[in-house]
Design brief:
Structural class: alpha/beta
Bound molecules: 1-O-phosphono-alpha-D-glucopyranose
Radius of gyration: 19 Å
Largest sheet: 5 strands, mixed, barrel
Strand order of the largest sheet: 8-11-9-10-12
CATH superfamily: Spore Coat Polysaccharide Biosynthesis Protein SpsA, Chain A
Low-confidence stretches: 280-284
Mean pLDDT: 94
Helix content: 25-40%
Distance between the termini: 40 Å
CATH topology: Spore Coat Polysaccharide Biosynthesis Protein SpsA, Chain A
Strand content: 15-25%
CATH class: Alpha Beta
CATH architecture: Alpha-Beta Complex
Length: 284
């Protein structure tokens, strides 16, 4: 049973400067909802309601977002604007939130290791909020949690990327078990296309077994001189303990301007355009 989800959220978001100069990149909105909230909603959809954040300097807005704002709520109480807070209130009621800070930026693996005190000795999920995933039936994380129930090992979500993009991702290779599952034999962080073992790229959804922390403590820094989660997973993969899952759904790389705009268009059409369920401008 997985109950915990970790959100590494210490990065600077330099690709979005100046917007991210004094605002966490995870607070950038897709239409009217910050990226981090989409991530937490996905965790909850998978039954994970113990939420941990690894933050850093300048990230206090994250804590404030997952808290009540008494003055604002008093101000809009009884008006039609109140409905706009329904979803975030539901998350605050349902989840517990714990925070720890990454003091030095030493890579995603190091950020995850910083979250160890929040995750305890259980298997847990990791969501990178700048990968926004949409789905028709079941969220990507709930698809993965269902797989974990059967396989009880680390699982990474993967999708095929164009070969010239391998240097932006962790890349996996291994043996196909069926059309959506690969038993990973090796993982490499951001290989150049010439040396990439495949074009199957890890996206920002992971389920990790807790032995990952001991591995993270002992592996040397890898690419960019940073501690890479990909390298730690590679150690587990050598024991046959990692699955790569070709998820159902669509992922937007909201860490890039193009992906961010594409996600905005998608969510606008889905939730906000005339005919969608969300309150339209006239209703607000
Ligand atoms: C990180 C990981 C990489 C993974 C990617 C998914 O890279 O290091 O292995 O493929 O997230 O979004 P980043 O995008 O933080 O550079």
């Amino acid at each position: 049973m997985i109950r915990k989800c970790l959100f590494p959220a210490a990065g600077y978001g330099t690709r979005f400067l100046p917007a991210t100069k004094s605002m966490p990149k995870e607070m950038l909105p897709i239409v009217n909802k910050p990226l981090i909230q989409y991530g937490v909603e996905e965790a909850v959809s998978a039954g994970l309601d113990q939420i941990g954040f690894v933050t850093g300097r300048g990230k206090r807005a994250l804590e404030d977002h997952f808290d009540t704002n008494v003055e604002l709520e008093h101000q809009i109480a009884g008006t039609d604007k109140e409905a706009l807070l329904t979803d975030i209130r539901a998350l605050i009621d349902r989840c517990t939130f714990a925070y720890t800070r990454q003091v030095e930026m030493k890579g995603l693996g190091h950020a995850i290791l910083t979250g160890e005190p929040l995750m305890g000795g259980e298997a847990f999920a990791v969501v990178l909020a700048d990968d926004l995933c949409v789905h028709t039936d079941e969220s990507v994380l709930s698809q993965m949690v269902a797989l974990y129930r059967t396989h009880q090992c680390s699982i990474v979500a993967v999708e095929e990327v164009p070969l010239d993009k391998t240097a932006s991702y962790g890349i996996v290779s291994g043996e196909a078990l069926d059309e959506s599952l690969v038993r990973v034999s090796a993982m490499v962080e951001k290989p150049e296309p010439e040396v990439a073992p495949s074009n199957l790229a890890v996206i920002g959804r992971y389920i990790l077994t807790p032995d990952i922390f001991d591995i993270l403590k002992r592996i040397p820094p890898g690419r960019n001189n940073e501690v890479q989660i990909t390298d730690a997973l590679n150690e587990q993969a050598k024991q046959g303990a990692v699955l790569a899952y070709r998820f159902k759904g669509q992922r937007f790389d909201c860490g890039s301007i193009e992906g961010f705009v594409a996600a905005t268009e998608h969510i606008f059409r889905r939730d906000y355009a005339p005919g969608a369920n969300y309150p339209t401008k006239q209703d607000r």
